[in-house]
Specification:
Largest sheet: 3 strands, antiparallel
Number of domains: 3
Order of helices and strands: HHHEEHHHEHHHEEHEEHHHHHHHHH
Number of helices: 19
Distance between the termini: 76 Å
């Protein structure tokens, strides 16, 4: 019996130690509020670079809801755990970041903790932003603090318990957040390293193009092996890519700069917003990204020559879906077989990754929603068929395109994919913003 007090004391001591450790992991101090700095206090050259960095980070796409003002937040971000609403990052002192010091902003970027000490959900990709330099964080801060302030209170997230409790995110960070910053590869060129810095940092390409585990973290062992974004398939960017014609640095540069390439087609879905933003940044940044991504994608496939791919296309066979063939002839062939080059004609569908991909979602989304014209720009355009085709007709068309324009095995579950795509497109149109087109005058890219 004499040992009982010792046992109890030991248990209490262990509990206190565990509690203190948990508190140390979860608790972060608030950083004192400041008066919003005068926009005139920032160097225009730093603001200009911050604008480019914000475009590289695609910040406006996540922090602007449909019908809302730029960077004022409120965009619903669906996750497997519920819906998270993006935050207001305008310099409004009450509902935005107007009271944030540069140190508070840098902490949010590096560790995912806001000015008040609350852990931020990793839909804000601070697991990539740890790679961003202090200089670039400073430029991004200068840009955001010189935007028009917008009073837009945050919408409450709609998450399942216990993930609706922010302290839980501290545990996620212990498992998955790495504090290492970007380290250049001395064996590679300066352009390659600059591209790697952008891709793994602010551009956070892996957030969409890398599969995630059950807890929503990127699978490091499968980097760039393909992922999900708003019910679109984010294609693999490594050597498991399914593009009929292999990408190279020049084709990637043209695609990222213009939003289309004659050997690959047109950017759609979330990628359309990405290339719209990239069209406003420097050639140096876009070319560096292209050089890095072309290198990690591996050597071109021997059978990926454009002429060889097109030579494999055969006329519709007797086994092809007759209904799909009729729909293609009536609705698609006049553009896709016109011989007119992109962006004014349709891409030869034998070159389309959407047709050869293992997943028909992107093709279903494109058929349903089309490719909208961009005001003031010479850009691709395609009508959407959501209102004029039934799910059964879209399914027949997709099956025909797969059989006619690829050598891959038929898809399975196409009917469900089409139905899901229709529901997803309806929800997306109600919540998101469309791609912003680049300034018509390229000289505007130099303005802060």
């Amino acid at each position: 019996m004499a040992r009982s007090p010792r046992i109890i004391a030991s248990i209490v001591a262990v509990a206190l130690i565990v509690g203190a450790a948990a508190f140390a992991v979860v608790w972060r101090p608030a950083i004192a509020a400041i008066e919003r700095p005068s926009p005139a206090s920032f160097d225009p050259a730093v603001i200009k670079r911050g604008r480019e960095l914000a475009a590289l980070g695609n910040c406006n796409s996540c922090h602007t809801r449909q019908g809302g003002q730029d960077f004022a937040g409120g965009l619903p971000v669906p996750t497997p755990f519920g819906v998270i609403y993006s935050s207001n990052i305008t310099p409004d002192p009450e509902t935005g970041i107007g009271q944030w010091s540069e140190a508070a902003f840098a902490r949010a970027m590096m560790t995912g903790v806001d000015r008040e000490g609350r852990h931020l959900y990793p839909t804000f990709p601070y697991d990539h932003f740890t790679n961003v330099t202090d200089e670039d964080d400073r430029a991004l801060y200068a840009f955001l603090m010189t935007r028009p302030p917008v009073h837009a209170p945050a919408r409450p997230n709609e998450l399942m318990f216990p993930l609706d409790q922010r302290p839980v995110i501290a545990g996620w960070k212990l498992l998955f957040l790495r504090g290492e910053t970007f380290r250049p590869d001395p064996a590679k060129s300066a352009e390659w390293n600059h591209g790697a810095y952008l891709v793994d940092g602010l551009a956070h390409c892996g957030s969409c193009h890398t599969p995630r585990n059950a807890l929503g973290a990127e699978r490091a062992s499968a980097q760039f092996a393909g992922g999900e974004a708003d019910n679109w398939r984010a294609y693999a960017l490594n050597d498991r890519a399914h593009a009929p014609v292999s990408w190279n640095a020049e084709s990637l540069y043209a695609y990222l700069r213009n939003g289309w390439h004659p050997d690959h087609g047109t950017a759609r879905g979330p990628m359309a917003e990405v290339v719209s933003n990239l069209s406003t940044v420097s050639d140096r940044d876009v070319r560096a990204i292209a050089i890095y991504m072309a290198d990690i994608s591996g050597a071109p496939k021997p059978e990926s020559d454009r002429g060889a791919v097109l030579a494999q296309v055969e006329p519709a066979s007797a086994q092809a879906d007759a209904a799909g063939a009729a729909i293609y002839a009536a609705a698609c062939a006049s553009c896709h077989e016109s011989g007119r080059p992109l962006p004014y004609g349709g891409v030869n569908l034998a070159l389309s990754t959407a047709v050869t991909s293992p997943d028909p979602r992107n093709l279903a989304n494109t058929v349903l929603s089309g490719v909208a014209a961009v005001a003031g720009e010479r850009s691709p355009i395609m009508p959407g068929f959501a209102d004029s085709m039934t799910d059964a007709q879209v399914t027949s068309l997709l099956n025909y395109l797969r059989a006619r324009f690829s050598k891959e095995q038929p898809w399975t579950g196409v009917e469900k994919t089409v139905a899901d795509a229709r529901r997803s497109q309806t929800a997306l149109l109600q919540s998101s913003v469309g791609p912003r087109n680049a300034p018509a005058d390229p000289s505007q890219r130099d303005q802060p």
